[in-house]
UniProtKB/TrEMBL annotation:
PROSITE patterns found in the cross-reference section: HTH_DTXR
PANTHER family for this protein: IRON (METAL) DEPENDENT REPRESSOR, DTXR FAMILY (PTHR33238), IRON-DEPENDENT TRANSCRIPTIONAL REGULATOR (PTHR33238:SF7)
Keyword vocabulary terms for this entry: DNA-binding, Membrane, Transcription, Transcription regulation, Transmembrane, Transmembrane helix
Family: Belongs to the DtxR/MntR family.
Protein name: DtxR family transcriptional regulator
Amino acid sequence: MVEDVSKGAAGYGREGRRSRILHYLMAIYILGGLPGGEYAKFIKISRLLNVSPSTVSIMTRRLQMKGLVELIPNTGVRLTEQGLKLLSNYLWKSGLLEVLLARAGVDIDNCRGMGLRMAEGLSDEDAWILYKVLGEPKYCPHKKPIIPPDKINSENARNIALCCGITILQIPNKK
């Protein structure tokens, strides 16, 4: 079962660092912080992730140092192209895994959570192989578009989270 991210970001070990980064990138994305667009407000990120504003401030500075977000103090934060690429790659892998799981007979309601949990462990090389083996699927089992990360641009970036109806509460929280 997928854990509810609203329980907070505490409790991450080394293996959870990437999950925490994805949580923040998804929160920023959901709040409209796309490259070249609006800035997601720190307080809204704090409420969405159920963490303190100071935690958001610390984490967004770390994300900025990694080149994943653009940060403006007292204004907000938005994804960089690199941050959008990382997030879209994760969601693309998740969609591919959903297709694979559905074809293997897994109940469609369970595919989403399983795909999200498995996506972090899937290498880019293996994802592209899977993409080809699956016949380059364009839709997940829920009939939402699967957009390969090399096809994401400013026009279709808003659609990546629509794949499988993903919300911040569905990203697995590794502890």
